[in-house]
Amino acid sequence: MLLSCARTPPQMIRLLSVVLMLALGTWTLGTSDAGLEDFAQLEEVAAIRYGPETADRVREWRELLESLADEDEQTQIARVNEFFNRLLRYQDDQITWGQEDFWATPLEAMDKGAADCEDYSIAKYVSLRKLGIPDERLRLFYVRARIGGPGSNLSQAHMVLGYFETPRDEPLVLDNLITRIERAGERDDLTPIFSFNSRGLWPDGASQSAADPTARLSRWRRVLEQLAEYGLDLEQPINPTP
Amino acid sequence: MTLRKQLWIAVAIIMLLALLVSIVASTLSARNYLAQQILTKNIDNAASLALSLSQLPKDDTTVELQIASQFDTGHYRHIRLEDPSGELMLERHNPETPRGVPNWFIDTLNFDVRPGVAQVSDGWSSFGTLIVESQTNYAYEELWAGTLRLTAIFTAGLLIIGLLGSFLLGRLIQPLRHVVEQAEAVGARRFITTPEPRTWEFRALVRAMNRLTEHVRVMLVEESKRLERLKTRLQHDDVTGLLAREPFLARLQATLDNRHAGSSGSLAVLRIHDLATINQIVGHQNLDALLARIAKVVEQAVAHTEYGAAGRLNGSDIAVFGDSIADSHRFAQSLLSGVRDALGDDAPDALTLHVAATLYHPEDTTGEVLARADLALARAELEPGDAVAHEPHATLPYSDQNQWRAAITDALDQHGVELGRFAVIDADHQLMHHEAPMRLFLDGELRPAGYFMPWAVRLDLIRRLDDAVLEAALSRLQTAGERLAINLSVDSLRDTHFRQTLESRLQQDPQAAGRLWVEFPARGALAHPAELRDLCRIARLTGFTVGLEHAGPEAFQAHDLTTFGLHYVKLQASLTHSVHRSSETQALIRGLCTLAHSIGILVIAEGCDISDDIELLMDAGIDAVTGSAVREPTR
Asked: Is residue A115 located within the same domain as residue A154?
């Protein structure tokens, strides 16, 4: 009880300043490029909520995306894949979050500096969406991963991000276990079970969710809601293609 | 607008607002809840169907079976499978619309729930996109039913609250109606009190109204008393207490003018010879006392007549007239002897009295009657001591008792009595009844009662005449639907047998009784209170109406009219005549009306001969008028 009382005032001040900074940020950057504006905001949120280290990582992320904005898609996926595989170290949710399974937003993952398979996939998905790759060509795949070389009977549940050059092609797989990007057909250690993206989860044309209380009940929707709350709009790439 | 109507409108508005708020609140919250549930279901079912499709072989039959089985066994409106380029691959659709729900309701609610979307993959490559929409019909139907239920409940509530409210309101404003009645009663110079209600605000109002009513009543009574005193002083001679010259002559004129009833009688003038000399001998004060004693005797003489008055014409002349006195000579003699008896030995020796008398008849003028009296007086003054002289009426057809008896009996036997017909109208100019005075066919034409009445009284024929009048009135009431007022004599009132006849005749014919008004001369009838009371009892029993005619102020002042149960009183014409020139008379009449109304008696004015007087009398509180100025109301 005493502890919580002692902790309350700083928390309050923090929260208040978040709101203040958010408002300020929105106001000062109101005229800048629409896609970048939310990143500036994200940095401030990260700085206030998680501290300077996380803010640095977010800034790094922003700088990466800014530098990739004009590159072709192959470069983009390669650099994004590499960035997150390098930035975040793999760690089980049980250790990171103290629970069996937790789907973290990129910000949460960057704060911990750690992620497991779905956190990598989510972060890469968000990054590529922000770089302007449409939803139809990105999928998060539940896959059964065989471990221990060909012929092994050991397998584990895993998640990867699939990138489709065209909707009908075989996707390229962005994985955190095997960091090299390969075509799906070459990955005979992975068996796809189910795939999904964010299509249809938001009302057409709406960039923000309509505060639907059921959203929190689904892990995937929670992540998407959280992103919207940060002000991160997936429908608006940082450098809209002319 | 009535309070009740306003109450209903208020209740209706409140209930309608409550209904609208309830419907909007409950429907909106239910709608949002349902929309969330449906969205969740859409998303989940799309995902699970996509998951199972992803696992299965992708031949057309399997895919179609999978989707069809989901669609057919579940609650869906639309399931659609698109290939990665957005082309339709497979679709199941249920176009049914909600049953029994109006379109405007559907348009207003407008469940725009997003479909659930999920990706079906075939290995690594995408096979298609699955779009799932759940059925929303039941939601519309359920919400519509709820709206109807709420409306029904609120309608029932409106009716119950409205009925209860108007019932309570009716009870609550009861005192208000009483107060209105009371105020109207005060306007009509009737003073009633209202019982105090329980409601505090109304109790204060009713209490104030009661106090006001009492104040007005006391004020009016005092005012009329004051005016009455004033009138008495103005109209009467200070020394003798008799009427002054003008009021006396007015009274005589009224008697002569009483056209429909007609009236005849005797007028006597008593002159004190050489008043100046007596004044010198006995002194002023003694003379006044002497005059007062003479006046007392004269007043007694008047009291014996049916209708009459006494007045002091000038210093030495005292006049008196009385209705129905047929023998003027005897009247003069009895007057003289009466005065002499009263004075006895106290009279100064120098006092010499001359009495002259004459008959008067309805066609006479005051001037003619006084002129005849003067003629007789001149003759009487020729005598040295007390003397009586009498001047006969020139125009009477019958000279003695026997001739009169024969004439009246013949007329009654051969022609019967005729009844006149004079309208009595109330304040709204509606007919109250017809006054029907008796007429007899004498000396070649129909004569009014005054013409033969003194002789009928003297010859004891009046009872026969009254019987004939009653029969004539009843037979007329049989045929015509009018209300008739007949004048009966005090002789009949006093006759037990007549009263019994009246009772039995009218009990047989309650229809006619209800329309019969019976009136008696006020002075004579009030002298026999027991008989009058009995007659009023018969009236209550059989349903006819009883009143007094020729009533003067003394009828109210000297008698307690409340004890009889009389229905109406007709004020004598002398009061009516002076109403337009004397505000005292108006005040007197107003006072009399107030008094009569307070005990439930109607007041009718006789002898209204000037049409302007009608409104004047009505303003003074008179309920109805009759006289030559009164026209039969047109229907």
From this structure: yes
| CA pair distance B235, B227, nearest whole angstrom | 12
- At residue B320, φ and ψ (nearest 5 deg) are -150, 140
Closest by Cβ to B118, choosing from A196, A214, A221: A196
Return the ∠ at Cα A76 (arms to A75 and A78), rounded to 5°: 65
Q: What's this model's pTM, rounded to 2 decimal places?
A: 0.50
Residue A164 in any domain: the answer is yes
How far, in Å, CA of B385 to CA of B98, rounded? 129
Q: Please say whether the beta carbons of A73 and A98 come within 8 A.
A: no
B3-169 has CATH 2.40.50 classification: no
Kindly state the helix (H) or strand (E) to which residue A169 belongs, with its residue range. Answer: none
Alpha-carbon distance B84 to nearest alpha carbon in chain A (angstroms): 6
**Is residue A225 in some structural domain?**
no
User: Mapping DSSP to helix (H, G, I), strand (E, B) and coil, where does residue A154 land?
Assistant: coil
Q: Choose from B124, B129, B131 for mutation: most chain A CBs within 10 A.
A: B124
Q: Is A239 on the interface with B (CB under 8 A)?
A: no
Determine the pLDDT at residue A16.
53
pLDDT above 90 covers a percentage of chain B that reads 17
pLDDT tens digits, residue range B128-159?
Answer: 899 999 988 888 898 899 999 989 998 999 89
Q: Which residue has the tokens 């108006």?
A: B586
- Contacts for A23 with CB less than 8 Å, ≥ 6 apart: none
In angstroms, rounded to a whole number, what is the distance separating the alpha carbons of residues B386 and B340? 10
CATH code, B401-625: 3.20.20.450
Q: Is the pLDDT reported for residue A206 higher than 60?
A: no
What percentage of chain B carries pLDDT values higher than 70? 97
Q: Are residues A85 and A186 in the same domain?
A: yes
CA A80 – CA A86 distance, rounded (Å):
10
Q: Give the pair of three-digit tokens for residue B53.
A: 């499709």
Number of domains, chain A: 2
Distance CA(B264)–CA(B253), nearest Å, equals: 12
Is A174 inside a domain boundary?
yes
Q: Which one of B119, B129, B131, B134 makes the best mutation probe of the A interface by having the most chain A beta carbons within 10 Å? A: B119
Q: How many CB pairs under 8 A join A and B?
A: 66
- As a whole number, the mean pLDDT across chain B is 86
Name the nearest CA neighbour of B267 among B368, B338, B399, B339. B368
B439 forms beta bridges with B418, B448
Q: β-strands B431-436, B387-391: how paired?
A: unpaired
pLDDT of B420-435, one tens digit each? 888 999 888 888 999 9
Which of A111-115, B256-260, B268-272, B336-340 is least confident?
A: B256-260
pLDDT at res. A209: 47
Query: pLDDT of B288-330, one tens digit each?
Result: 888 888 988 888 888 777 678 889 988 889 999 887 787 888 8
- Is B628 in contact with B613 (CB distance < 8 Å)? no
Q: Name the phi and psi angles at A196, rounded to 5.
A: -155, 165
Q: By C-alpha distance, which of B134, B125, B120, B154 is closest to B42? A: B134
Alpha carbon of B24 to those of A143, B33, B34, B158: distances in Å?
49, 14, 15, 19
**What is the C-alpha separation between A104 and B138, in angstroms, rounded?**
38
Of A167, A200, A217, which has the smallest distance from its Cβ to B115's Cβ? A200
- At the second CATH level, the architecture of B245-391 is 2-Layer Sandwich (3.30)
How many residues comprise chain A? Answer: 242
Please report residues of A whose CB lies closer than 8 A to that of B55.
193
Lowest mean pLDDT among A37-46, B61-70, B153-162: A37-46
Which tokens in the block code for residue B597?
Answer: 């109304």
Reply yes or no on whether the pLDDT at B341 is more than 70. yes
What confidence category does residue A19 fall into, taking pLDDT thresholds of 50, 70 and 90?
Answer: low
